[in-house]
Amino acid sequence: MSRSTQRVKPSEPIRDRKWVLPVGKYRGQTLETIMGVDPHYVRWLAENTEYELHSDLLDELDQDYDIASGLIWGQLRNTRVMND
Question: What pLDDT score does 4 carry?
């Protein structure tokens, strides 16, 4: 069975960013790719499926989310200041 069609749950939390999702919306894509295009899906995956992500990956997701939220908030605040 190829790596992309493997449906066995990993015995340890997933820590490899090159791990390939075997099912679902992003089937056949690496975790790294999914984190780049849809980090909310990766968080959902960790919270709602049998796939457990290593705490390092979850921390990275949280950090990226905080940075993105700060950038968006800063853009919104600057837009409002410019329009006032």
Answer: 44
State the Cα–Cα distance between residues 9 and 66, nearest whole angstrom.
29
Q: Which long-range contacts (CB under 8 A, 24 or more apart) does 11-19 make?
A: 13/52, 13/53, 13/54, 13/55, 14/51, 14/52, 14/53, 14/54, 14/57, 15/53, 15/54, 15/56, 15/57, 17/57
| Sequence letter at residue 24 | G
CA gap 29, 42 in Å, rounded = 12
CB-based burial label for 60 (10 Å; 0-12, 13-18, 19+): middle
User: For residue range 9-20, what is the model confidence (pLDDT) as tens digits?
Assistant: 668 899 999 999
Residues found in the chain: 84
- 23-73 pLDDT, tens digit each: 999 999 999 999 988 888 998 998 899 999 999 988 888 887 665 555 555
